[in-house]
Here is the input.
Amino acid sequence: MLEEAVRRSGLPYNELAAAVREMAAAEGQSQIATDRSRVGHWINDGGRPQDPIPRYLAAILTKALSLTNPLTPADLGFKEPVLTQLGATPEEAHAYALTATTTDLRPGDIEDLDLVVHQFGALYSTKALGELWGEVDRCRKRAHSLLTHHRHTLREGRELTRLAGMLSVILAWIAHDLGEDELTRAYCDDAWAQGIEAEALDVCAWSEDVRCTHALYAGRPYDALAAATRGLSVAPAGNRVALRLTAQLARLNARLKNRSAFTDVMAQVRTHSDRLPLHRSGLFDLDAAVLASYEASSLIWLGDHREAVVAAEVAIGHYRAMPQPQLAPTRLAIAQLDLALAHTALGIPEQAVSAAREALGGGRIVDSVRRRSEHLEYRLRLRYPELRAVRDFGEELRDQLSRDVLAPPRPA
Here is the structure.
């Protein structure tokens, strides 16, 4: 007990004396040593249980119990630490450390959100947009609740914020596919803000990828160019979002009839394309099929329709070779519509109508497909107003576009 009492920093000396009295009585010492210097050395050096010094200390303190005044450190040759006199304790430091690691999150809360972000990205095109919105929106609200209504560590907060941003990117894509302009921009804004706070600039870049695509199909190429440039300014070097935004920049220059810039940027993109897989599904992936599709659209805008046919057919071939073609129905439909536009310009409307029917046969008529098909139908009517196949296609298109875009996609 004496050893414990001596080693407890800041223990009041009257308590220490009481402990010594108990120990001295138990050991029944008959000889009393009065060498206080040896006692002081024992205390200051830490002492060991096997040392005999505690017995001398017991004798001294037992004798001192008869004193009127309580014992002081000087009575034992022991100097109390300065910081202890100021009220500093190890317990206070331990409390600070505990505060830094205190969390109300359950094991798996963050990991579960991370998993669903990957799942939503990979299986995006296999779910009805209405169903998908409900699922992603619930997860986004869950992330918000964990951030605002639960205690968490700074590290956990940063990761939750990053995941919240990625969920908002997915919600922005759904809003884009539904043609919801204000909602798309709002979720892009939120994703950018979350990425900045989480110091996850790839989230910011992905938000600008959505904003760029949405503005392009909405007929605002300069807004799309601004978004691509902004995204590239923060995209981490070597990240696939950087290459995707570079490819976006190439087709935007084509859309703006800037042939030389398109050629330069597309050459830069091609230097990386050999390292890409031919086809890969998901919102956050990039493959050679996407680049071929981007090039087909670009060549149509530049008026190079024969080259556009080749690029569109390459993209279509890549998508059809996918183990699960239904995982990229929108990109496949866009490539088929680009092929139809090229055939229209080359004077073969029957092939144009055939390619367009294949594009609309996938059953997932998102806003970008609707806009592209309406443009195609306008070009066909402008050039071949008397052709029966063109009139029939116009009626079919109106029927297709009247269907509920929230309906589940048709099985492949």
Notes: Residues 2-81 form one domain.
